[in-house]
Amino acid sequence: MRLYSLSVLYKGDPKVHLLKAAYDVSTFNFFQRSSVQEFMTFTSQLIAERSPLGSRASVKEQEYLCHVYVRNDGLAGVVIADNEYPQRVCFTLLDKVLDEFSRQVSKMDWLSGSPATISYSALDGYLSKYQVQTPKT
């Protein structure tokens, strides 16, 4: 069971834009990592764009399950995990991250922010904390 990506986005008018993201692409071949990360960014934006305000959904994309939560204020979170990762845990994580993000980052920054300008450093910590370690045999 594995988490690959955790993203915070803003669903504004007319497009969705990425505010902050964390990735774990360590299980992929070194030469594939940047394209896998691009795929996850694009997929997160696309799923958030297609989800209505105030909704939660899980979407299968290739061998991944993408869990999206779009709040009524337009703030959205996407977790990309493997098929075995528990759905309930993903939505609990999204709730926690979006609540904390909305408290720490001004709503004015949501409109024009980007991963380079938004100072919110907790995503990497959450991604590793919620990673399920499989015992080595």
TrEMBL record:
PROSITE patterns: LONGIN
SMART domains: Longin (SM01270)
GO BP terms in the entry: endoplasmic reticulum to Golgi vesicle-mediated transport; protein transport
Domain Longin as annotated: residue spans: 8-127
Subcellular location: Endomembrane system
Coiled coil: none
Entry protein name: YKT6B protein
Species per Swiss-Prot/TrEMBL record: Panurus biarmicus (Bearded tit)
The gene coding this protein: Ykt6b
